[in-house]
């Protein structure tokens, strides 16, 4: 993710988050520079001559991150002016003294017009691949309320863990 992707990401977030605060691009850039925060974006092309512009393409595009785990998966000669952000997800890394990092998967969301095509599954698979490989996570946790999202996570191998979460609002 680039700071300039934030307005499009911000438009998607109300679909999965109750938080309505908007951040400055400077703050977003600071978040993206943190080694424990990884933002993944999926794009499609508005240009019919681009390689992944087919309307029914299940893995609509490329997942990119804030640069911590390698280069973008977009083709080198790709015209970025034709990109439309259609999916987003976050992975937080938390150090653990007894194993690899704990990963926390958050805010996986796909634009309404692109749902039902396998994009959320493909995005999660990419994030899990990065967590398992270059990010060296020992596990990935998440919370889920949406039945459709729970179906995706279960299909990917996530299991219910009985725990009680507590929260302190600051």
UniProtKB/TrEMBL annotation:
Stored Pfam families: Acetyltransf_1
Location of the N-acetyltransferase domain: 1-170
Keyword field: Acyltransferase, Transferase
MF GO annotations: acyltransferase activity, transferring groups other than amino-acyl groups
InterPro entries tied to this protein: Acyl_CoA_acyltransferase, Bact_Acetyltransf, GNAT_dom
Superkingdom, natural source: Eukaryota
Name of the featured protein: N-acetyltransferase domain-containing protein
Source organism of this protein record: Vitrella brassicaformis (strain CCMP3155)
């Amino acid at each position: 993710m680039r700071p300039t992707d934030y307005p499009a990401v911000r438009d998607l977030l109300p679909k999965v988050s109750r938080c309505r605060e908007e951040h400055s691009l400077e703050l977003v850039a600071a978040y993206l520079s943190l080694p424990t925060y990884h933002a993944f974006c999926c794009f499609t092309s508005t240009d019919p001559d681009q390689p992944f512009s087919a309307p029914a393409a299940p893995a609509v595009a490329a997942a990119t991150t804030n640069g911590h785990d390698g280069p973008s998966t977009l083709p080198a000669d790709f015209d970025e002016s034709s990109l439309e952000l259609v999916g987003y997800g976050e992975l937080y890394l938390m150090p653990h003294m007894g194993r690899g990092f704990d990963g926390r998967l958050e805010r996986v969301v796909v634009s309404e017009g692109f749902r039902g095509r396998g994009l959320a599954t493909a995005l999660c698979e990419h994030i899990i691949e990065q967590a398992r490989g270059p990010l060296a996570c020992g596990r990935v946790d998440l919370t889920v309320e949406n039945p459709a999202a729970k179906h995706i996570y279960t299909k990917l191998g996530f299991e219910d863990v009985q725990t009680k979460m507590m929260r302190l609002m600051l």
